Hints:
Blueprint: H1 2-44, E1 50-64, E2 68-71, E3 76-80, E4 97-101, E5 106-116, E6 119-128, E7 149-158, E8 162-170, E9 196-207, E10 210-218, H2 234-237, E11 243-251, E12 255-266, E13 271-272, E14 275-276, E15 281-293, E16 297-307, E17 316-322, E18 328-332, E19 334-344, E20 349-360, E21 369-373, E22 375-376, E23 379-395, E24 398-413, E25 425-439
Antiparallel strand pairs: 1-4, 1-5, 1-25, 2-3, 5-6, 6-7, 7-8, 8-9, 9-10, 10-11, 11-12, 12-15, 13-14, 15-16, 16-19, 17-18, 17-21, 19-20, 20-23, 22-23, 23-24, 24-25
Amino acid sequence: MxxxxxxxxxxxxxxxxxxxxxxxxxxxNADLLKRIEKLEAEQKKTKEWDASIYGWVRTEYNxxxxxxxxxxxxxxxxxxxxxxxxxxxxxxNAASASNFLAITSRVGIxxxxxxxxxxxxxxxxxxxxxxxxxxxxxxxxxGSTGLLRLRHATATLDWGKTAVTFGQTWYPSFxxxxxxGVANFNTGILFNPFGWAGQxxxxxxLANELSFIAVxxxxxxxxxxxxxxxxxxxxxxxxxxxxxxxxxxxxNKNIVAGIAAExxxxxxxxxxxxxxxxxxxxxxxxxxYFKYSNEKxxxxxxxISGGNLxxxxxxxxxxxxxxxxGQESYKPSKTxxxxxxxxxxxxxxxxxxxxxxxxxxxxxxxxxxxYMRGVSGTRILDNVWRASARVDFKQNKFSISxxxxxxxxxxxxxxxxxxxxNNIKDVGNFRGxxxxxxxx
Length: 440
């Protein structure tokens, strides 16, 4: 009996202990659940600060059948050079060229932070290794080929209907949603504006699918030509007024379209003929663009016409005229260009074709000097056209894109209106290239 009482006491104690332990275990599970819910809520909570890195490694091999005006080690070809005959009548510029480069590899950071004055705040910094200047053949080690180059550095405040961006980014005439999809790094240069500039940009939504964009900017890396007595980009520095750009843009699921106008006033020099100069080169340009895309096709069109398009890496510039007091005054040359690009939207294998055309429409007669792209001594470009075909082979973030391209240029003797008139010569350059990219 005594043993039975002892066993009963032990059993009761074990039962009470297990009951207490079970209660403690139940409380711990509930606490754990609360902690899990708290962690999930923190994960769902919007981060005040966030940053993401992006970019690509890009390598390309280029072969050119003819010498061309170019930028950065024959990477970016502009137009084939005019015929240049030696003593035996052989064309010196009919020589081929090639290169293997990775300088267009790129890295960038997108970041955002806490709201500022009720606006969502975000920013971007992007660079590549294209440098800013060519190597100087007469001075070893000079130039910045292959060095890090700033592309974009912007901050944006977005209130929903109104957004303000300041810093360096695309020229407003370069439309990020509507530019040629070519494999060549020239991105349709000569036919499509290209480059970045320091600016302030205001975008205002007028309706759900319609916006007005106003930009004031100053040329930087890409700039107008230099007049006699000028230094690099002095025409922009000397001008108290920035370039003004206004643009209407329509955008929905399948269509992006817009029209724009721009006014620029530059002051090439502050001294001419030993006298203070206030002479300016004033110009305007107008453009329109259109893009249609769906799950099968991407179609793009773009056209631009205006004066002094040199800063957009296009044909043209301005002319110098001698005034009665011996000073030089200036007037812009006129240029027109258009292009069309058609491509497949297939995510694996996407062929595409491009065609572009640009025309030098001359300057007012009576000029003494020409400060233009597309002039070589007494010879000048009349027009340039380019046709290319490509195929993009894509797998995840990796792509291989072979492309065949032909660029034709018509050269002629310079006449009194800054046009090509006599001794017309057609020359062409065939470029074969392969681009390999691995993006992150």
